[in-house]
Amino acid sequence: MHNTNLDCDISIFMPVYNGDKYLKQSIESVLNQTFKNFELVCVDDSSTDKSYEILKDYASKDTRVKVFQKQNGGSVPIAWNFIMPYLKGKSITYMSQDDFMSTDNLQALYNRQEETGADCILPDMVWYYEEKTNNKIIKGINGDRNKIITNREAVTLSLNWDIHGFGLWRAEILKYRKFKEDIFNSDELFIRESFFLCNKIAFCKGIFYYRQDNKQAITKTFGIKNYYSLVTNFRIYKFLENNKFDESTLNFAFITVIYSLFYNYRYSCIYRNKLSQNDHTMIRLMFYKIYKQLNIKQLLSSSNKEKNITRFKYLAAYYIFFNYSIFKFFMTLISIYDKCRLQLINRSQLEFSK
Predict the structure, then answer these.
(1) In the chain, which segments carry CATH 3.90.550.10?
(2) How far is CA 227 from the centre of its chain?
(3) Facing residues of 122 across strands?
(4) Does the domain made of 8-219 have the CATH classification 3.90.550.10?
């Protein structure tokens, strides 16, 4: 058993893998906080660059920095499950190896949690590009930080990123649950489930900088893992359905799954040669399973026609998704068009370069 005594106010969890480019900036933003009673718990996922050395150097200088190293697991959810028993804070927050925060962020989060008793506090979040001066900001609810919202409101608002998930959470909301490890972005589901467990969600004036210009970040690289984001979108939809969210929320989540199925199938057709035959077979099997579980025929039944489904979405679902063979035929036509378009673009670029 690990020591689970709570001996600090805030635990900050930072998973690290080959992040030496921005790692010092991220750690310094934590150590420079005006709030002092925290621990920064870092998990190095067997980095091959200087990340682990950087972490050990900071840990040798500041006892609040705790460093763990594990065999490469390939995803943040695995790192979350690994480190959760070691976190000793009364509340927990998360940041990636390239994110950073304003110096008053932890103090603002802590003060607001003490003031409101909310299970989750969300600071302002900046979609950070280093070369941009007009980065998009998510601030409270449409700019209002004074609002306090319910768990259901938070889940619904999070679906379209009207609110984010980089908050300060009461430890008991997170600690005794497991992330699904089969999908790289299962945190998308975990955060919505966490919002649902909260008594209420509040906001504060601290700033979390969510870096978008790191091309090496796992969220910025594309591979077989991205196809399985469809599974996460489907799980979110089923979570909403099982907990009886309103029809407009369910429709939004359903259309998100349909779009994800459409986009990923299309991409798999265009770049099939980048996949092994085994990977391609696994992906197509996953597409088929999701399609069957969506129960398109139920959506198209007469009892559903009068629900909050626009005519365009209804007709699109009817003609494209009436059965899987029609869907595959439609996607094959789209892939032929895509390949022809790419050939024309490449030919034009060659002509231009001459």
Answers:
(1) 8-219
(2) 14
(3) 203
(4) yes
